[in-house]
Amino acid sequence: MGTAQRKEKEKEIRRNDIIDAAEKVFFSKGFDATTMDDVAREAEFSKRTIYVYFNSKDQIYFEIMVRGYKILIEMMETEIQYTNGKNALDKIKQMGKVLYKFSQEYMYYFMTIIEYENGELDFANGISDKSRQECYALGEKIFTYLTSALKSGVEEGSIRYELDIVNTAIILWSCIVGIFTTLHRKRNYIMNYHNRESNELLLNAFDMLIRSIENGGIAK
């Protein structure tokens, strides 16, 4: 390995060390309460060194989302292999189950993505184009799984033909984000006042969303 390659590898290791440290602080304190001083302290680097690698706290947040999206995509692609031969509605249901499994096994990554979906970081300053575009590309890959399933459903007749594919995908994703957010933040309230388990409500919500797009589902 030449000198240039070794330096580049060392730079990448240090960069990942900073992201690792930021994860620990973000996941324990929350993004808003975390400062770059906190990240530097956890990483055992000076704050000046942190800024050599990252323009802002927001950029690090995007890098953490990239890690989460990659895990979710790997889970999606693994499960998609087992849905060959099934209709589109079954595929969409399976995607919902994968998302639920991801939320349980990788809760902090999941909440990082959900918090972003509920925030306004898209056009925040201090986020490099590379970090932003990589994150967007991964998010759109997941979105494509959904639009592809919807398109297949319309073609095979299991999903209502009059639905606009992109509009429907955006609405479904927005509903799912809202459901997860509410059930996560109001879990105790829902249990204490309505005696309902969040996990059960989540599965019911998935069924309702599926019925809303199913061909003939509304009339049932």
From TrEMBL:
PROSITE patterns in the cross-refs: HTH_TETR_2
InterPro entries, per database record: Homeodomain-like_sf, HTH-type_TetR-like_transc_reg, HTH_TetR, Tet_transcr_reg_TetR-rel_C_sf
Keywords: DNA-binding
Record bears the keyword Iron: no
Record feature DNA-binding region, as residue ranges: 35-54
Pfam families according to UniProt: TetR_N
Alphabetical list of PANTHER family matching this protein: HTH-TYPE TRANSCRIPTIONAL REPRESSOR SCO4008, TRANSCRIPTIONAL REPRESSOR
Name of the protein this chain belongs to: TetR/AcrR family transcriptional regulator
